[in-house]
Amino acid sequence: MRSSARAAIAAAGAAGVLLSGQAAVQAAPPTAGPGAPGIGDPYYPDYGNGGYDVSHYGLKLHYQPATDQLDGVATVEARATQGLTRFNLDFGLSVSKVTVDGRAAKFTAEGAHELVITPPRTLRKGKRFTTVVTYSGVPSSVKIYGFTSWQRTTTGGVAANEPESAWWWYPSNDHPRDKATFDVSVTVPDGHQAISNGVSTGVHSRNGWTTYGWRENRPQATYLATLAVGKFDIVKGRTPNGLPYEYAIGSDLPADTKANALTSLKRTPEILKWESSLFGRYPFDAVGGTVPNTKAGFAIETQTRPFYSPKFFAKGKPDFSVVVHENAHQWFGDNVSVHNWKDIWLNEGFATYAEWLWAEHAKESTTQAEADKVYNAHPAGDEWWNLLPGDPGAQDPFADQVYDRGALAVHAIRLRLGDQAFFKALRTWQAAKGGGDATVAQFVRHLERVSGKNIDDIVKTWLYTAGRPAVAPGH
Prior knowledge:
Helices cover about 25% and strands about 30% of the residues. It is an alpha+beta fold. The chain folds into 2 domains: about 45-335, tricorn interacting facor f3 domain (Immunoglobulin-like, Sandwich); about 340-465, Orthogonal Bundle (Neutral Protease, domain 2), CATH 1.10.390.10. Strand 7 and strand 8 (about 105) form a beta hairpin.
């Protein structure tokens, strides 16, 4: 906070073998069974699902802001990675109908967020199949594990949270390992707007309702999909290199908040150009941001269109650092996503360090001064040093230490490698892993291959050892 899609694992079914002078012998078909109810994340074992890989989500939604009523039809295109007698989707709203490849399928809700589907026929390993789920509900009233990630606003609602937000507005294989492309169509009352990820595919009105279409053609993790419905002041245009941008700011926010938000978001193309010089070419086909009138206190890197709480812009001045942070995530978190949620340092450590780099670029500070500030703020013996950025735990993976101590780790690595090797490694990392996911260990190996230098001691000290290191990086 603040891909071609991961390749589907597929294999052809066993084929008949013709032996000379003998009849064809058919090998035994592969064993089929239920897909796992979790993808295998060590922090969140029931997040995501096993047995299939999604390639595309098509969402057709109808939303009434006055009542927070959401009705939807989700078309999920996937490939079976094993023989499937049943499979799960992560979801929390009420489901009325499910089909698999056009035929009615049995379904039931189990556990906190599992939609269990039994197709009319077993799905063989490697088969591409299409699941259509019809559903409805009032997202803000649905509590899972005691909370909802759907935020009511004064004029509508917003889906934005981490590590889970999809459960409240569309069924999915909800884990960053399974990225997919998206088409989102949202019908809302005239006078309201509906904003999602990627590029606009058109707007049309009929009988008092307006439908907005959005398409994200680059692989996107499920938690990075967003929907914001309400009344917004919208600024559109194109960046100097031709990418469409759209900034949406809640129409009923205070005038000074709106002005600060717009001033901040208008710097996005400039910030992205600068970040591209560090991390490589911007990986997506659209730019933007939303600032709904919500009470949330965070920002999040929803792909191509970050979500920002208005609190960032209600301090009497613009906030460029949060724009830097969330857009750095377009590389670290969105283009290359975490393999497991314990790898979250790969997202937050680098987005925070981007803020430090921006402060130096803007001649407001230096990366060394920012590192010293964090180090000196927490003396020896402070419990703050006992949370490990490389393995922060499921209870609080977004603790301050992941961001700030995580950025200290990045600074220490940069100093060891030197700027030429460090930034080359960041750019080649994006080129090598873009559109997919990765672990901390894979990233460390990549840095060492590119630089020819060993950083095991730095990684152990700053990411995996409790207690305050003897000296700050750079001293």
